[in-house]
Amino acid sequence: MNILAFDTATDACSAALLAGESVFSRFEIAPRQHAKLLLPMIQDLLQQAKIELSDLNVIAFGCGPGSFMGVRLATGMAQGLAFGLQIPVIPISTLQVIAQAAHEKTHAQKIVAGWDARMHEIYWGFYARDDHGLMQPQQTDALCTLEKIDKAAFSAVGSTFAGNVFSDDTYPDSKAMLAIALSKYRHNEVVSPENVHPHYVRHHVVHNHK
Fold this sequence. Notes:
The chain has two domains: 2-93 and 172-195, ATPase, nucleotide binding domain (Nucleotidyltransferase, domain 5, 2-Layer Sandwich), CATH 3.30.420; 94-158, 2-Layer Sandwich (Nucleotidyltransferase, domain 5), CATH 3.30.420.40. It is 29% helix and 29% strand. It has helices spanning 34-49, 68-85, 94-106, 174-186; strands spanning 2-7, 12-19, 22-29, 58-62, 89-92, 110-118, 121-129, 135-137, 142-145, 155-158. The model is unreliable at 160-167 (pLDDT under 50).
């Protein structure tokens, strides 16, 4: 099983490769440098693993929400590679990847993953650990102002906001995406390249979770 995963929806540019039982990864905080960095990162991972693009079974990518240009870059890269290789694609919420990375770091069982959407708003999602150690969405990813989130109830991760509510600065790490991608692949939660779309969110009314 060979899975390539990458995310460029935030200031972080990351790529990871599961090649058999080995994992290879690259991660760099590089605002506005993603278009220059992503393909060399992928090529470097393939060289490290000593496999070819044609050996890949599936491509997973962070489909957003996040930076418009970053999300479009990852979507286009996944679609283009998968078309050429004639393999399926696994779109994964960037917020789910943040939640998974935070869980692996802190072992928190419930996490609000958030990212700065500018204009005093955030993208956010509520995630909880399942029996297989994967952070699963408990609601649809949303966009709203920070004040509307019931922050006290959860461990919170994501980019830093006023008041340091999301102060952990946990980025979407593609190495954490691999576990989610492998599970989705085994459950046939894949899409064909022509059906790949960015994940944009709408404003959502926030309800308190007990």
